[in-house]
Amino acid sequence: MFQNESGQNPEASLGEQPTDQQVNNEQLTDEVAELSPASEELRHHDPLLICLLQMTRLKDAPCSETSLIAGLPLVDERLTPELFVRAASRAGLEAKVVERKLFDISSIVLPVVLLLEDNNAVVLKTVDSAQGKAIVINETEARESEISLSNLTEKYTGYAIYVKTEQRFEQTADLKTKTASEHWFWSVMKSSWRIYRDVLVASFFINLFAIATPLFVMNVYDRVVPNQAIETLWVLAIGVIIVYVFDLILKGLRGYFIEVAGKKSDIILSAFLFERVLGSRYSERPSSIGSFVSQFREFDTVRNFYTSSTIAAFVDMPFVILFLLLIFYVGGPLVWVPVIAVPIILIYGLCMQKPIKHAVEQTFESSAQKNATLVESLVGLETVKVLGAEGFLQRLWEKSVGHMAHWSQRMRLLSLSVGLFAGLIQQLASVVVIIAGVYLIVERELTMGALIATFMLASRAMGPIAQVASLLVSYDQTKTALSALDSIVAKNQERVPERPFVKRPSFEGAIQFNKVTFNYPDETQSALDNVSFKINPGEKVAIIGRIGSGKTTIQKLLLGLYQPSQGSVLFDGIDSQQIDPADLRGHIGHVPQDVILFSGSIKSNIVYGSPHIEDSEIIRVANASGVKEFVDRHPLGFDRPVGERGQALSGGQRQSIGIARSLLSNPSMCLMDEPTSGMDNSTESLIKENLTTALKGKTLVLVTHKTSLLSLVDRVIVLDGGKLIADGQKESVLDALKKGQLRVAQS
Fold first, then answer.
1. pLDDT interval class at 141 (50, 70, 90)
2. CA gap 78, 88 in Å, rounded
3. Separation of alpha carbons 512 and 543, rounded Å
4. pLDDT digits (tens, 9 = 90+) for 223-235
5. Confidence of residue 18 (pLDDT cuts 50, 70, 90)
6. How many Å apart are CA 732 and CA 737, to the nearest integer?
7. Type and span of the H or E element at 254
8. Maximum Cα–Cα distance across the chain
């Protein structure tokens, strides 16, 4: 009998494993070949991604390949089982990796994804146990095929991925309130509650074992010494040594548990935060990169607070009551000394909270300003030197450093005062305990051993309080840092799980602006004002106009980096806001005016984001973009380093690499913003000739001030002040410009 996950016996299951006699050996060989493709053309295939695409179709939630994997940290450009779960959630599917024997998988949960040997996978759709056959979806050809269960068992690794449709409900008021209550940080910390439970258990026994020393000393002074009971002394000594050994083990385990929980949370939260940063809308980008980096780096403060032993001090707090009760039992009225001392320490610490918090906030702001100055200076170092602005930046740097040093010193002094005050009260309390204890001994109400035990217990009781008081500054730093990270998490995202996109695996290339008005964030003046035009598939159009007329804004709207304030941008008749940004940008080849390169080689920058591209494709786009012209002249060829932000190359060379990038995926639409502004005339002529061939059948939107590039287009759109003032055939529009019928500056 076979059971599903609920423990019930399904009516249908995979049944008994067939014997080898039921299978034809020649057929087995063919089936193995189907499950383990090794041809050259399939070496870049991602078996798990192909299986996920098939599952989305089977679950009536079809998605494109781009929308499923965009932004995921692929391993060797492939999905892993863990990434499969994250990718499935984008299609509204809930996936779970389970360890199951093949014949323990219930037919109720079919179809499932089976992980096979050699990093392969297959979708198991149906099973015929009686005949020892199974229907699987071929991972390479996306078709159903029949395979024997014995052969499938031989290739199966023992791990499967269950997939089901995720239940998503309408966002009612109650559900919104519940969702809002789930804090991104505390929900992750909550996931480690079992580890923190073990920390609490260990802390309980550690504090319980702390009682052993005072009780040992008390019994030695009160019973062993007066009676010279040496045997009792050794029994007590052996007992307390055993306690010390267990105490050492438990403290080690507690520290280990805290570090394990911290590591787990660190990995999850770091990945989540960076994903939120990359997934946020372009309009949410920070105004200062340096300040944002400083803000993002404060995650280390939060992590260190919750992953270090400081949390043990807060865990020990409840056990102060236990020590006070024991002091009352041993020392009677001496318990009033720590009872009075503890609130005095806490009150002073709380009084210092407000000035400490203010100092922490000022330190954070100063640190952000200092970091912003450093980043901007290094990024624009050439400009700084050319303008002779070193003195200005030096003054700004020293001002930021001085402000930060002032408030950092104030914060440390306030924190130090809390620690010193707590230490003073702790010492005074110890003296008072001794003085009061002596009077009680004289009155024969207390023994010598009880006094010593009370003294030790009082110090132990006030230890966590003094430590917590000193940690208040760390708490304020953590709280401020957490608030800064909250602002990062709160950024609007391009993809919202509750809002499904229209699936567009391909585009014909039709573009339409329908009464589009757009204002940049925090700007009152419109960058575009009621702009409407339509571009047919394969049409070549240039957009010209004065500086600031809205040409580049149109390209940013086409790329989905911004959304119109009014009106709509349509692709093949579908509003761009209904299309997954990854699908849209995956079919648009974009050449920005200022091409940004990343540290690495020329080749790695051409294939950035698509490292699995064949070398033949790289050579194709290198020829079309002019990259091959300067690559062939360098001894390292395509492996030539480009430097940080491409500083080792000229502006024209960077633009050539940008053009190569835009053509690599063979997109149906190309957007080019001054693609040859940094090139000489001969290189530009070569690029134009190559682009004429490369752009055949593709929609082209070209932004340029160069009339020489207009040979690439058949139609010209003229903008001025954010408004469309001319749209027509190239010759007629250029003729109107020459005659002065259009008031637009043309270079």
1. low
2. 14
3. 14
4. 888 888 888 889 9
5. very low
6. 9
7. helix 230-279
8. 122
> What's the Cα-to-Cα distance from 78 to each of 46, 73, 109, 645, rounded to whole Å?
5, 9, 25, 27
In angstroms, rounded to a whole number, what is the distance separating the alpha carbons of residues 356 and 738? 68
Strands of 407-490 (E only): list them.
none
pLDDT for the residue numbered 8: 39
Residue 702 identity: L
In this predicted model, what pLDDT tens digit does every residue of 618-677 receive, in sequence order?
999 999 998 988 998 888 989 999 988 788 888 889 999 999 999 988 899 999 998 988
CA 342 to chain centre: 43
Residue showing tokens 């770091």: 270
Q: Are strands 156-165 and 511-518 parallel, antiparallel or unpaired?
A: unpaired
Pairing of strands 699-703, 669-673: parallel
Vertex 261: Cα angle to 256 and 262 (nearest 5): 95
Q: Rounded CA gap, 87 and 166, in Å? A: 13
d(CA 210, CA 205): 8
Report CA-CA distances (Å) from 498 to 175, 187, 230, 252, 663.
Answer: 12, 20, 75, 45, 34
Determine the Cα–Cα distance for residues 199 and 250; give it in Å rounded to an integer: 9
* Per-residue pLDDT band at 611 (split at 50, 70, 90): low
Q: Among residues 572, 589, 495, 500, which one has the least CA distance to residue 63?
A: 500
Beta-carbon contacts of 252 under 8 Å, excluding residues fewer than 6 positions away, are: none
Q: Is 214 exposed, middle or buried (0-12, 13-18, 19+ CB in 10 A)?
A: buried
The Cα 245–Cα 363 span in angstroms is 44
Compute how many other C-beta atoms are within 10 angstroms of the C-beta atom of residue 439.
Answer: 10
Instruction: Quote the mean pLDDT of the chain.
Output: 81
pLDDT in tens, 323-339: 888 889 888 899 999 89
**What is the structure's pLDDT at 15?**
40
Provide the pairing of β-strand 588-591 with 669-673.
Answer: parallel
Cis before 318? omega within 30? no
Residue 162, both tokens: 């269950």
